[in-house]
């Protein structure tokens, strides 16, 4: 090794030690801890062990710029505030101020020559980290990733080719001209203009073209309102004439409600020099960042369909607003999903349209508690590239680095385009009312397009006439309602090869039936696979007992319980080619320890070994079965599963709440997507929610799945709300969800104590014959219909309480009817059951929920509609309450006795 190599190795080692000391001082040798601490305190020119004056201080200076250079980068186009003074970025702070700028130092890992004059080192650092780009990445623990970013940032700036510069101006011209055209043609209409952030358009178009060159074949974008219409036209190629029709009040037919134009989604195939890219913009309601997990779920489904395990072909792109990014918790939840096994998508490219303001009335000092709106990215060690939106060339360079980083490391990366909003929150809002200082600056500022055109003209890259022609050509195309191929070129309309096939489900009627039964031989075969213990695999005694019982259930020796009925449904579906994806907190075992879909070898020697999932070993040709114990999130995980189900019609996608009321934390997903996406956007989805419910005396928080909320959302046959009360019912219900050509969200109110209740188990014959029954009536042979005076209608666990109480009292003139499907209401079946009891003048609804909750208020008008003139309707339930349940066990029991008494007393 040469002397120079030895010196370079020594300097690299010192630098690595210093870098380690900055992160975790205690992991550095005590001698070096003291040495580096002295550097932090001293102001004189330090000496390294080798006696080179200031050498370690130079390494310290380099690290300071890597850590803090972004603080003095020129990021704000408005230049509202002076750049802060950061002492760590000065030579004096490091004791280097008195040294000759021509003094040569080792540069360590700084990209460039191994030795350089101090002045050159400082210039390189300022150029790399303090221009119109600032980067935060030194918190990454992976050295390879940090070195990779350093290589890209510290190399000489990329010189854009003249054709790329011209293309940038063409796209900026399109972005600006479209907004101005809409502003003058449709005066006063909301469009949530992109003006001030036009650099987004060339940024996305570069992403589409260069992503395709790297092998990306599909891009799914999620974004809120701002700039959405511009992206639709200038990036995805939606025809301007179609957009204009929406401004004129012409809407798509066939939707029961529809939605405003700036919530609409769209997809197209965009031509690039290296091939076509399928680009989809997800539908998104007004809840801004809620689209994030939906996009991730959709992307994961598309990746799974292709076998794209690394995310090489399908790319998620999330476009955020600055205030929403830092203000909405679903962003953090979605980031937390990014590297987990069940939810990873190979890295998401995040783009922030940073207006430096929230709603028009917001003061930036009130929108967050962190320095940057992007600071939550540090939670997942996501690098952040801040870039001045008025420097479109810098935006392009940063986009290329971010895309390459994602492609190389398959991790999230964030591009923060610092810009401004030229108009108010919307076009009817006057920003000067609350932000006069900021908007005086904006009004005096040339547009991004004007600035860049002037730069190209000054550098003789094009003439004023050519720049003006770009606007004229684009405006002429808008007048024709057409696209310009120089902006975006959609591929000819041909079926997308990897698209999910929804056609079979478009016209299906909810009353369509399906044969959900299985033969005895098939049930036996499935049971053998479900209960086969791998050789040498040691089950926990409790699980072994469960498996032994399931073996007997499959042989008809024991009645089938809930857990086995559910497992048989999943096993039969994957064998028939339907994938099953189940996620939720503790869903592998089941919150109430009923499922045991995942077995753990009690003798395993490693944390990542000794796992067996029987449902993944049903058949060599089976469809996938995936079970995920999710992180402690409801909103993001349910949003993810909705996105997955909306892109994968041949998967039974289930989300299980730990307790039914945990779904409250995901109410936005339920309200804005699950219940209404078909009415607003024509989007079908077969997502299934499993919500444990039942009043067991556990208090207000874990009793109610809030049945009333789902029933309130029911209209236009948008949902299925079911409360199955037997193992056979859940078996047939889950199979029906896939086998019949209907894809509607299914809300299943599942039991807790009922999971092990003997009476809720079903004989094997009920799996071989029959199907899901919306109403379960009592067996006619055991009841004299002529003697029945009251029909008690109920759902769920309360039926078994009523049965026990009726038997104890030896009552023979009251019959019980279980309503297993609350919506769509089974009108014909209900009328047929009423007709069986001609002497029953009393019909009573019984529920264990309080009167202002549960199904009573939503169900009573259905019951009244079908009563005979000689019948009257009454009810038995808990008193109305502000809380879902009482917290005192004695009061719980008192209320239970009261409503049972009322139900069974004529």
Spatially, the strands of the biggest sheet line up as: 3-9-10-8-7-4-6-5
- Tell me the overall shape: globular
Q: Which stretches of 5+ consecutive residues score pLDDT under 50?
A: 1-9, 42-51
User: What's the pLDDT, averaged over the residues?
Assistant: 91
CATH class of the largest domain: Alpha Beta
Supply the CATH superfamily name of the largest domain: Thiamin diphosphate (ThDP)-binding fold, Pyr/PP domains
Beta-strand segment tally: 24
What is the number of helices? Answer: 29
Rounded Rg: 33 Å
Major β-sheet annotation = 8 strands, mixed
Fold and architecture overview:
The chain has 906 residues and is an alpha/beta fold. The chain has four domains: 3-131, Orthogonal Bundle (Helix Hairpins), CATH 1.10.287.1150; 162-480, Thiamin diphosphate (ThDP)-binding fold, Pyr/PP domains (Rossmann fold, 3-Layer(aba) Sandwich); 520-768, Rossmann fold (3-Layer(aba) Sandwich), CATH 3.40.50.12470; 777-904, Multifunctional 2-oxoglutarate metabolism enzyme, C-terminal domain (Rossmann fold), CATH 3.40.50. 38% of the residues lie in helices and 13% in strands. It contains 29 helices and 24 strands. The radius of gyration is 33 Å and the shape is globular. The termini are far apart. Residues 1-9 and 42-51 have low confidence and may be disordered. InterPro entries: 2-oxogl_dehyd_N, 2oxoglutarate_DH_E1, DH_E1, KGD_C_sf, ODO-1/KGD_C, THDP-binding, Transketolase-like_Pyr-bd. GO terms for molecular function: oxoglutarate dehydrogenase (succinyl-transferring) activity; thiamine pyrophosphate binding. It is an enzyme of class 1 (oxidoreductase). One of its GO terms (cellular component) is oxoglutarate dehydrogenase complex.
């Amino acid at each position: 090794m040469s002397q120079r190599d030895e010196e370079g190795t020594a300097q690299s080692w010192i630098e690595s030690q210093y870098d380690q000391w900055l992160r975790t001082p205690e992991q550095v040798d005590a001698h070096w801890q003291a040495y580096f601490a002295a550097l932090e305190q001293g102001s004189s020119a330090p000496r390294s062990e080798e006696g080179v004056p200031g050498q370690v201080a130079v390494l310290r200076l380099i690290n300071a710029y890597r850590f803090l250079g972004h603080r003095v980068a020129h990021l704000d186009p408005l230049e509202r505030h002076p750049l802060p003074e950061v002492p760590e970025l000065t030579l004096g702070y490091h004791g280097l101020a008195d040294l000759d700028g021509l003094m040569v130092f080792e540069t360590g890992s700084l990209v460039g020559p191994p030795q350089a004059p101090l002045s050159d080192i400082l210039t390189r650092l300022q150029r790399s980290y303090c221009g119109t780009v600032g980067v935060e990445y030194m918190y990454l623990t992976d050295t390879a990733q940090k070195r990779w970013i350093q290589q890209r940032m510290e190399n000489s700036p990329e010189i854009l080719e003249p054709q790329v510069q011209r293309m940038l101006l063409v796209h900026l011209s399109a972005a600006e001209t479209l907004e101005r055209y809409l502003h003058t043609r449709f005066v006063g209409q909301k469009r949530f203009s992109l003006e001030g952030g036009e650099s987004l358009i060339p940024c996305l178009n570069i992403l589409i073209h260069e992503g395709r060159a790297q092998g990306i074949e599909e891009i799914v974008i999620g974004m809120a309102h701002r700039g959405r219409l511009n992206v639709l036209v200038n990036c995805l190629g939606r025809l301007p004439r179609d957009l204009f029709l929406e401004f004129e009040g012409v809407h798509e037919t066939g939707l029961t409600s529809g939605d405003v134009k700036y919530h609409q989604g769209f997809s197209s195939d965009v031509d690039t020099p290296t091939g076509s890219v399928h680009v989809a913009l997800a539908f998104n309601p007004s809840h801004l960042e809620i689209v994030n997990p939906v996009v991730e779920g959709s992307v994961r489904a598309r990746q799974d369909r292709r076998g794209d395990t690394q995310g090489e072909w399908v790319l998620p792109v999330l476009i955020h607003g600055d205030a929403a990014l830092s203000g909405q918790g679903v962003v953090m939840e979605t980031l937390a999903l990014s590297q987990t096994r069940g939810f990873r998508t190979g890295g998401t490219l995040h783009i922030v349209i940073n207006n430096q303001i929230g709603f028009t009335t917001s003061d930036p000092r009130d929108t967050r508690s962190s320095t940057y709106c992007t600071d939550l990215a540090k939670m997942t060690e996501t690098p952040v590239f801040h870039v001045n939106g008025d420097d479109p060339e810098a935006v392009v360079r940063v986009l290329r680095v971010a895309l390459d980083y994602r492609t190389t490391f398959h991790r999230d990366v964030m591009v923060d385009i610092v810009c401004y909003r030229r108009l108010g929150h919307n076009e009817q809002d006057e920003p000067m009312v609350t932000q006069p200082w900021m908007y005086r600056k904006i009004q005096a500022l040339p547009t991004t397009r004007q600035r860049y055109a002037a730069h190209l003209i000054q550098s003789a890259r094009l003439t004023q006439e050519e720049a003006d022609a770009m606007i004229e050509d684009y405006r002429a195309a808008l007048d024709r309602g057409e696209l310009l191929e120089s902006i975006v070129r959609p591929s000819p309309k041909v079926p997308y090869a990897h698209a999910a096939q929804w056609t079979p489900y478009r016209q299906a009627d909810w009353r369509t039936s399906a044969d959900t039964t299985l033969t005895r031989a098939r049930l036996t075969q499935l049971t053998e696979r479900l209960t086969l213990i791998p050789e040498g695999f040691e089950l926990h005694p409790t699980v072994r007992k469960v498996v032994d019982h399931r073996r007997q259930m499959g042989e008809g020796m024991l009645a089938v319980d809930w857990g086995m009925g559910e497992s048989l449904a999943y096993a039969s579906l994957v064998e028939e080619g339907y994938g099953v994806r189940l996620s939720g907190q503790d869903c592998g075992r089941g919150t109430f320890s009923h499922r045991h879909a995942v077995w753990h070898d009690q003798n395993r020697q490693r944390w990542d070994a000794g796992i067996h999932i029987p449902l993944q070993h049903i058949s060599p040709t089976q469809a996938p079965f995936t079970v995920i114990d999710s992180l402690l999130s409801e909103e993001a995980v349910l949003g993810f599963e909705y996105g997955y189900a909306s892109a994968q019609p041949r998967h039974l996608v289930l989300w299980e709440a730990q307790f039914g009321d945990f779904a409250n934390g995901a109410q936005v997903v339920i309200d804005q997507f699950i219940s209404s996406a078909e009415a607003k956007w024509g989007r079908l989805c077969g997502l299934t929610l499993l919500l444990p419910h039942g009043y067991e005396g556990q208090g207000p928080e874990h009793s109610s799945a809030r049945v009333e909320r789902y029933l309130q959302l029911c209209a236009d046959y948008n949902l299925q709300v079911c409360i199955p009360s037997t193992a056979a019912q859940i078996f047939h219900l889950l199979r029906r969800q896939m086998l019949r050509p209907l894809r509607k969200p299914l809300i299943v109110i599942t039991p807790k104590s009922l999971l092990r209740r003997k009476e809720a188990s079903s004989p094997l014959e009920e799996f071989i014959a029959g199907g899901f029954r919306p109403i379960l009536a009592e067996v006619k042979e055991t009841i004299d219909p002529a003697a029945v005076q009251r029909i008690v209608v109920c759902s769920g666990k309360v039926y078994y309480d009523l049965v026990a109480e009726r038997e104890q009292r030896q009552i023979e003139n009251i019959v019980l009817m279980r309503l297993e499907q609350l919506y769509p209401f089974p009108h014909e079946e209900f009328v047929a059951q009423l007709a069986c009891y001609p002497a029953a003048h009393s019909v009573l609804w019984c529920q264990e929920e309080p009167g202002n909750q549960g199904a009573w208020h939503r169900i009573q008008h259905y019951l009244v509609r079908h009563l005979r003139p000689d019948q009257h309707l009454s009810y038995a339930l808990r008193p109305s309450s502000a809380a879902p349940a009482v917290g005192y066990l004695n009061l719980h029991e008192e209320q239970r006795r009261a409503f049972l008494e009322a139900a069974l007393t004529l």
